[in-house]
Amino acid sequence: MLERRFDADIVVASRYVAGGGSDNGLALRAMSRLLNWSYGAVLGIKCRDVSNSFRLYQLELLKGLNLRCNDFDIVEEILMKSFMASKNLRLCEIPFKFLRREEGTSKRNLSKFVYSYVVTLFRLLALRLTA
Questions:
Q1: Residue 27: what pLDDT?
Q2: Which residues of the chain have pLDDT under 50?
Q3: What is the pTM of this model?
Q4: Are the CB atoms for 9 and 86 separated by under 8 Å?
Q5: Domain assignment of residue 122, given as a range
Q6: CA dist 1 → 26, 62, 80, 95, 119 (Å)
Q7: How many domains does the chain have?
């Protein structure tokens, strides 16, 4: 990621570019694909791995963003508002492989997670349509 930091405003570690992937089970991979496709298609975000929070940002880009999300969904808000703020935004995706969790359990509550993403998708769509 650091090697590409001068090539882009945002560098995203992506499961969905050549060389990337995930060891998660079929259900989690399918949910991730659906989420990433829906956010990209509905909001016009040109990034294959919208939901991955492993990113590198140029500080100046983030300084002017007014962010409202306070959960996992903030990564989509940052992307969409970055694209809205900069017509010439440079985004670079590099391959990244998610490995299966070896210890502990996820703190993520599935119903809260899904609800949060749906609410955020509609809120960000409304914002995009009124901009």
A1: 82
A2: none
A3: 0.84
A4: yes
A5: 2-130
A6: 27, 18, 21, 10, 31
A7: 1
